[in-house]
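User: Fold this; tokens only.

Assistant: Input:
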Amino acid sequence: MKSVVAFACGVLFAVGLGVSGMLQPAKVVGFLDFFGDWDPTLLGVMAGAIPVYFVAWVWKRGAPTPWGSRVPAQANHALDGRLVLGASLFGVGWGLAGVCPAPAVTNLAAPSAFTLSVLASMLIGVALSFLVPARAR
């Protein structure tokens, strides 16, 4: 049953990405282009997503998830070099390509050379992250 629920959530998320325009790299790059031809329409995606997530987190914090882990009871505010480097690399990649991991995977429904190159780049980045010594993680 967990797999069915997870699959249904994934499909709903993918449909939401498509409806919101997040699968279109040009739309995302336009949103990130504050000093050029800025496209603010993706603010609606955040305006809808953040309150839903916040309510769900407040309701379920500290409770177990169906997958065995617990919803964090409080936010983790620890900033370290690994977090800053990872966030910076993610942001630069997202800004250059206009695609983050979820839309890249969703775009596999109609793969292109661009989508495959983005996914390959992300997989290389994940593989490289495992080269960092365990004590630094």
